[in-house]
Write a structure and sequence with these properties.
This protein is mainly α. Helix content is about 80%, strand content about 0%. The chain has helices spanning about 5-25, 35-50, 55-75, 85-100, 105-130, 135, 140-145, 155, 165-180, 185-210, 210-230. α10 (about 185-210) runs antiparallel to α11 (about 210-230). It is a multi-pass membrane protein. This is HTTM-like domain-containing protein. Keywords: Membrane, Transmembrane, Transmembrane helix.
């Protein structure tokens, strides 16, 4: 996978993820709607630029999204949806820089940084969990099901009463996240790792409504696929 094709795919997927987020805001306060309608329009330019031989159109869209991200950050006093917004902003600015940096080497460096951050997002998440005794004994995962602020069913909350199963699930998540960097050793193992990771995000979207994580992380997968191909 070439740098250009990986970047274009990441741009298109990120634009779709941002459209999904923006559509949620259109049902919110009226004063926010022009901002998010503007973001949807810019995402359209990015998709057009990524899918056609019009890189200037895509670059205009990316630069516009980068500019629009600033008043959105000010409006919500930071990344209002936690990790998914941080990853989205990281991807956006890395894509912008990879387009405007002079020279292939700097462009590759910026895009590689995005792929590296994706890998670290899993590993660091696993490390934070494994050093926490509540995660090792399954109590933390039980609390997720028992006290979730998200609108989950009562049947799902009853999972909190199955400590042995939750401990196995917790260790499964931690071991996968901690060993994720090893998937970079081959193309096949990375694809398997990304399928497992995407399934994990999809399960969280289905169970807890965390749909933004699924689309945002999926958008960055081309970066790590390109990085693996570049390194090995």
């Amino acid at each position: 996978m070439s740098l250009d094709s990986a970047a274009r795919l990441t741009e298109a997927l990120l634009a779709l993820a941002l459209i999904q987020q923006s559509l949620e805001h259109l049902a919110g306060p009226r004063r926010d709607r022009p901002l998010f309608w503007g973001r949807i329009t810019l995402c359209g330019l990015v998709i057009i630029g990524a899918g056609a031989a019009w890189p200037v159109v895509g670059l205009i869209g990316l630069l516009g999204l980068a500019i629009v991200s600033l008043p959105i950050l000010d409006r919500f006093q930071g990344p209002y949806n936690g990790g998914s917004d941080r990853m989205g902003l990281l991807a956006l600015w890395c894509l912008v820089l990879s387009r405007v940096m002079p020279g292939q080497a700097l462009q590759e460096l910026v895009f590689a940084y995005l792929g590296l951050q994706l890998m670290l997002s899993y590993f660091i998440s696993g490390w934070v969990k494994v050093v926490n005794p509540d995660w090792r004994n399954g109590r933390a995962l039980a609390d997720v099901f028992r006290f979730s602020a998200y609108p989950v069913s009562e049947d799902l909350r009853r999972w909190a009463g199955r400590p042995q199963l939750l401990q196995v699930m917790a260790w499964g998540v931690m071991l996968f996240e901690l060993t994720f960097p090893l998937t970079l050793l081959s193309r096949e193992s990375l694809i398997v790792g990304l399928v497992v990771a995407a399934t994990f995000h999809l399960a969280n979207a289905w169970l807890f409504g965390l749909n933004r994580f699924f689309w945002t992380w999926l958008a960055v997968y081309p970066a790590i696929l390109w990085l693996q191909d570049r390194l090995f």
